[in-house]
Amino acid sequence: MKTLVVYASKYGSTREIAEFIAEKLRHQGMEAEAASVGAAPRARDYDAVVVGSGVYMGHWLREATEFVRQNRAVLADRPVWLFSSGPLHLPAGTESLDDPELQPEEIGELREAVRPRDTRVFFGALDPAQLGFGHRMIRKLPAGRDLLPEGDFRDWDDIAAWADGIARALAVPAA
């Protein structure tokens, strides 16, 4: 089964997750390719699609949302998974990444449009040297370093387990 893992990444963390997922799928015997939405991959050329986006201020990156919207008909006809990368820590009052409050605002619309088999939120990573001007300025505010802590918070075991679940689902013929 030929699988596309397509992503929108602002600073590279989401790209690394997508590449890791594609690699895990290849290790499971799948034909898998990771590509940026900016590379304009053709979803119709694949049997299954995983779409991932970095999340900023509670929103998927515009180009990831547009990829899903523009490929809605194709994606609705294939197995699809969606993932989000972004929180660096759990907000106060949140107990896990499964909390609905951590779902990006667009996820409801995208679920309705393409009926993904699963959606997942993963922790992200922050390297201050990679930040754009606006995010560098936020980190200079008194609470900015707490809001945007430096480090890699991704749980690679959790990401690997999710990718393995995708591989298992694709290995089972559709009913």
TrEMBL record:
<dbReference type="InterPro" id="IPR008254">
    <property type="entry name" value="Flavodoxin/NO_synth"/>
</dbReference>
<dbReference type="InterPro" id="IPR052200">
    <property type="entry name" value="Protoporphyrinogen_IX_DH"/>
</dbReference>
<feature type="domain" description="Flavodoxin-like">
    <location>
        <begin position="3"/>
        <end position="167"/>
    </location>
</feature>
<dbReference type="InterPro" id="IPR026816">
    <property type="entry name" value="Flavodoxin_dom"/>
</dbReference>
<dbReference type="InterPro" id="IPR029039">
    <property type="entry name" value="Flavoprotein-like_sf"/>
</dbReference>
<protein>
    <submittedName>
        <fullName>Protoporphyrinogen oxidase</fullName>
    </submittedName>
</protein>
<dbReference type="InterPro" id="IPR001226">
    <property type="entry name" value="Flavodoxin_CS"/>
</dbReference>
<dbReference type="Pfam" id="PF12724">
    <property type="entry name" value="Flavodoxin_5"/>
</dbReference>
